[in-house]
Write a structure and sequence with these properties.
Elements (H helix, E strand, L loop, with lengths): L6 H8 L3 H8 L9 H13 L6 H7 L5 E5 L7 H20 L3 E5 L1 E2 L2 E2 L12 E5 L3 H8 L6 E4 L9 E4 L2 H11 L7 E6 L4 H8 L7 E4 L4 H8 L2 H4 L3 E5 L1 H8 L7 E5 L13 E3 L2 H16 L8 E3 L1
Parallel strand pairs: 1-2, 1-5, 5-6, 6-7, 7-13, 8-9, 8-10, 10-11, 11-12
Antiparallel strand pairs: 3-4
Helix pairs in contact: 1-2, 1-3, 5-12
Length: 305
């Protein structure tokens, strides 16, 4: 049987004194504790399943079989939306087989909204998909359950991060085109999480990365996808729908596509396709989720897929 967490364990992990941890857990109004410290202690107490009294038990307990999924679909990123919807569908199917229910928690502004019959803290675990840093900070500050970050780099020991290793896929795409990444142009829609976006674009010189959205594609293409800009470079496209657009602008034989589309219906048959394995990412996410629910925190928190 696993050793039951103590107040000292909570204090050590939170980086506070045992007294401070005790004040927070017992909700002592006579002690001045910052809101950031209070939230951190409560989050860690919940992660360690530490529950010394009924008040704490109400924070750490009451778990249901609901798993909350927070994401935002944006009209200007159709290829990215296609991948996110496919990923969420895979999660829901796998969770259902494990007798968990997936519930989509909408974002209102930058906040994950309460939705009628449940609140964000009535779920057993949260899966956040490609949120901006501001959106994620607001979510993390207001929930006391494990949070898994997908296609996000938050670099915090409290949170798991699971993300597609797109720089490795970019190298593979360049090899398929018979060139090096630095001699290609990267065409992609933007990700919401800026750190992850920088990670993805880092394998290509900054001036050779073209971020597009549906509303500004034409003007950018006219200026940047011109012969003078491309010169002898070849084009790596992230996203099946973008590949269809690029097809009309760049000669065949100079485009490789990184896609999570399981059918390949959107991609011309003669384009080299590097598969971004979203099914594997969903499987890893479920595995880490089960570890989190079982209070197994001695595993790595960083997973490149």
């Amino acid at each position: 049987m696993a050793k039951k967490a103590t107040l000292r364990d909570v204090a050590n992990m939170a980086g506070v004194s045992v007294a401070t941890a005790s004040y927070v857990m017992n909700n002592r109004p006579d002690q001045k504790i910052s809101e950031a410290t209070r939230k951190k202690v409560l989050q860690i107490a919940n992660l360690l399943d530490y529950s010394p009294n009924p008040t704490a038990k109400s924070l750490a307990g009451g778990r249901s079989n609901l798993i909350g999924i927070v994401c935002r679909l944006r009209p200007e990123t159709p290829s990215r939306n296609l991948e996110v919807v496919h990923f969420v569908d895979l999660l829901a199917e796998r969770l259902n087989r494990l007798h968990y229910n997936a519930v989509l928690i909408p974002l209102h502004g930058k906040k994950a909204a309460d939705n009628g019959s449940f609140s964000s803290n009535s779920v057993g675990c949260m899966i956040a998909v490609d949120l901006s840093q501001e959106e994620f900070s607001d979510l993390a500050d207001n929930v006391y359950v494990p949070v898994l970050c997908v296609d996000m780099l938050v670099n915090h020991f409290l949170f798991y991060q699971i993300y597609s290793d797109l720089p490795a896929r970019i190298v593979q795409a360049a090899e398929a085109l018979g060139t090096a990444p630095e001699d290609t142009v990267l065409l992609t829609e933007e990700f919401s999480n800026r750190r992850y976006l920088d990670f993805v674009a880092g394998s290509i010189p900054a001036q050779e990365t073209l971020f597009v959205s549906a509303g500004i594609w034409s003007s950018q293409a006219d200026r940047l996808l011109s012969p003078a800009f491309l010169r002898d470079r070849k084009l790596i496209v992230i996203g099946a729908q973008l590949a269809r657009v690029a097809e009309s602008l760049v000669p065949r034989g100079r485009i490789a596509v990184i896609s999570s589309d399981p059918s390949g219906d959107f991609i011309p048959e003669d384009f080299p396709v590097i598969h971004n394995d979203v099914a594997k990412k969903a499987n890893v996410t479920i595995s880490i989720l089960l570890n989190a629910l079982d209070k197994k925190f001695d595993v790595t928190h960083d997973y490149r897929i």
